[in-house]
Amino acid sequence: MPFDTKTTLELIKGGLFNAEETWKAYLEQNPPWQQTAMTLTGPLLVANVLLSLIFSRLVGGYNAFGHQSGWFTSLALGLLLGAFTVTITAIVFNFMAGIFKGRPDFSRAFAAISLAVIPGWVASAVAAIIPYLGVMLALAGGILSLVYMYRLMPMALHVPQEKRVIHFVLALAVIIICNMVMGAVLGMTGAFGGSDYAV
Prior knowledge:
There is one protein chain. The chain has one domain (5-186). The chain contains eight helices and no strands. The protein has helices spanning 5-17, 19-28, 33-59, 71-99, 106-116, 118-127, 134-157, 164-186. The radius of gyration is 17 Å and the shape is globular.
C-alpha cells in the first residue's frame, strides 16, 4: 500500500474542517490498520514531531519535549511516544468495547484514534511557532482531540449509548496509567535532560 500524499492531506483537512463527514466516510471503508498507519497516522506523526522540533528551535515556541534534549533524542522520543500512545489507545479502547457490549475491531479503533488526534497534533506543530502562548493552543487542540475521541469511539466500535461514558472514562484511565509507566521506563525526568514532557 503506497503512501498517497493527496489522500493524507484530504484526511487532515477533512479532520479539521469537516470532521463528522470525514469520519463517517473513512470508517465506512473499514480500512485495515496498516492502511491507516501508512495513509494517516504515520505521516501525521512524523510531520508533527519534525515541525514541532524545527519551529520550537527556530522561534522558541512550545515543544512538548523541551529544549534541553538533543535533536536526535527529541526526534526519536517523539516518534516512539506518539506511536506507543496511538497503539496502546487503540488496544485499550478496543478491549473495553468488548467488555461494554460494543463490537471490538482493532482496525476501526486505530482509525478512530488516528482521526481524533488530527486537531491535537496539528495544534502541537503550529504551537511551536508561537512563543509563550503556544502551550495554550496545544492544550486546546488536545482537548478537542479528546472530544473527538469520545464521539468517534462509539461510532467505530458500536458501543451502546448507555455504556459510552463509562467506556470512555475507564479506557482513558487505563491509557493514562500506561503512559505514566512508559514515561517512567524511559526516564522522562532524568535520562532525557529533564524535559517538560507531560502525558
